[in-house]
Amino acid sequence: MRIENTMARQLRQLDKFPAGWKVWLQTQIMGRFVPFLKTAGLRFERISHEEVCVSVQNRKKIQNHINGVHACAMALLAETATGFVTNMNTPDDKLILLKAMHINYTRRSVGNMRAVAQINDEQAAMIAQEERELMQRALDENSVIVAQMTPFFEGDDDDDDDDDGDGAP
Q1: Domain region containing 125
Q2: For 126-151, what is each residue's pLDDT tens digit?
Q3: Is residue 164 part of a domain?
Q4: In whole angstroms, what is the distance from residue 65 CA to residue 59 CA?
Q5: pTM of the model
Q6: Is residue 111 part of a domain?
Q7: Residue 61 sits in a domain of what CATH number?
């Protein structure tokens, strides 16, 4: 059984709205948790206890000097997806904060970007059952519980269901 926190309860209320409104409504709700996300133009395409998918369009506001998505925007995208999927599985009395981040940029960004973060049942159970021990260890070691990001580039995935080329499924 996954943790039922405030964020999950708010998102569940979206089920009564038309499916076409879901991405916009999810994005608005998540923007209330972290207002900067609206400024950056991030879109929450899928949010569940198991997976969070966040995207950003390659537009002038977030581009670097060679017209790609700026490295900081890509880092924000990755951090947002991992942070929110972790938060979906964390009790309300815990605060998830990033203390360190390491990213290897392996090639130039082209087009829109999407980050997908997942937590499986075993990882969620570990958070639920061992949260006190893990949080105390992170505090004692002045460290964090690590989330790993693996970038996927357009064309790397044969199952790509991005039919319209916008970077989103």
Answers
A1: 6-140
A2: 777 766 676 677 777 766 555 545 55
A3: no
A4: 12
A5: 0.73
A6: yes
A7: 3.10.129.10
